[in-house]
Structures are given as C-alpha cells and as structure tokens.
Amino acid sequence: MGGFEGHLFPGVSLFLYGIYHAQLVSRALICNNPVQYPPRRPWNKGRWAKLRQIYYIGLMKILSACILVAQELHSIDGQLVLISKIYHQRDFMYHKQWQHLTLYLTFFLTGCADMVSQNLLPQRCVALEQGAQAVGILLFLPLMVSHMQDTEGVELQFHILFTQAVFLLTVVVTAELWAPNVMLVWMTKAFLYMVTGSWLAQIGFSLFKPISGYKWMDNDKNDLAFTATFFCWHLIFNASLMIWIYGFSFVWYCYIH
Questions:
Q1: Nearest in space to 11 (alpha carbons), one of 236, 196, 211
Q2: Is residue 140 within 8 Å of 99, Cβ to Cβ?
Q3: Cβ contacts of 124 within 8 Å, gap of 6 or more
Q4: In this predicted model, what pLDDT tens digit does every residue of 32-42 receive, in sequence order?
Q5: Residue 127 in contact with residue 181, Cβ under 8 Å?
Q6: What's this model's pTM, rounded to 2 decimal places?
Q7: If residue 124 lies in a helix (H) or strand (E), which one and from where to where?
C-alpha cells in the first residue's frame, strides 16, 4: 500500500465491499429475509441460466486481490527478495511490501472460501465464509500496527485513525462468529467496511495528492488536529450513505421491483 495507487485501490475495494453489505442489510430489513442468504434468481432454462445462479462476490474478491498484487509488484524497484545476501549479510528486505502481499493473500483466500461455500458445496457453509473473513481481518490488525513503526507526524496520525477503525472491525467480525444472525452486527460491519475503505483512499489523496496542492506539515498542530476532524466527516458521510442506500432499497423493493 505504498504510494497513491497503493492506498487508493485497496481503499476502493473495501469501500465497495462495505456498500455491498449495506445493500444486503437493507434488503434483509425490508424483505424480512436472512441477511446471510440473499435469494437466488429463479431457475429457468436457457443459455445463461447457470451463470445467473452464481454468486460473484467471491470471484470479485479474487480478482481484486490479483490486481492489488500486480500493482504492488509493479511498484517495486528491482527484484522482490525476502533476505538479502549482500556482503555476507542476511537482512530482511521489503518488509512493507511483504506485509502488503500478506494482506492481499488473505483477501484472495477469503474470496476462495466464498467461492467454495457459495458455488461448489452442495449446501452453503456460512461459517466457512465468516471464519475466513475473521481470520483475514485479524491478520490485518497486527500488520497495520507494525506498518506504523517508521511513520511520524501527519502520516502517523492518519494511520492511527485507520488502525482504530480496523480494530473495531476486528471486534465486530469476531462477534459475528457467535452472533451470525444479529442485524445490528451486520449493520455495524457494513459501516466499518465503508469507513476503513474511504479513509484508506483518503490517506492516499492526503499524503500524495492533497486537495490544497500543498503537502501536510508534520510540525503544524493545525494539520495534526484537522486529521481527526476529517475522519469524523468520513464517519458522517458513510452513515448518511447507509441511510441513502436503505432509502433507495426501500423504494426499489416496495414500489419498483
């Protein structure tokens, strides 16, 4: 997640995944359906009938992970190695890049778990999907804590706020393992996915392409204080977006669909 693209692409992926969950929650509330089991399209005969029965969210996770890995490898100058052999030394190299690739691997594995559960098993195993998701987020948290060790100033402040959101998301997806049918847990999870995604993309813009055209100053107390204000704006924006998604879903399922 180094550079502008390294923050933007995974941020957008997490944000869209949060919107997907917000749409599932809205449909479950309106149609009184279990949120874990979105209804399949009715089976019909035809050329594309089988494709219409496939859940694509797992495939999208896999494709997103592959794109993120390709972007990370493209941004590395030189050959990606784990341990250097210069002057008979054995130093670990590219520690941040290996952290990013480890994170993307968890996205890939959760996508594989979704594909197996939703499309290959004779009966969908929601516990497998939720367990893979929890493991992925649990790995995300220590990687982010380690990621902040060599940052300071405004960049550190941005990543501290991001890590707080990831910590809350970790708590929620862990609680979901014991309370899979609680609607409040799903609403909170969708909200936190949207917050982590939008804030991660915002980190890319703020650090590498600031709106003002001027770099944020680490020794400016106003810049440090404004990061918290900006984070609160993201919370308000995502909460408002969830309300809008519910309103649009209500109109769609009650009056149009």
A1: 196
A2: no
A3: 37, 117, 118
A4: 777 765 555 54
A5: no
A6: 0.87
A7: none
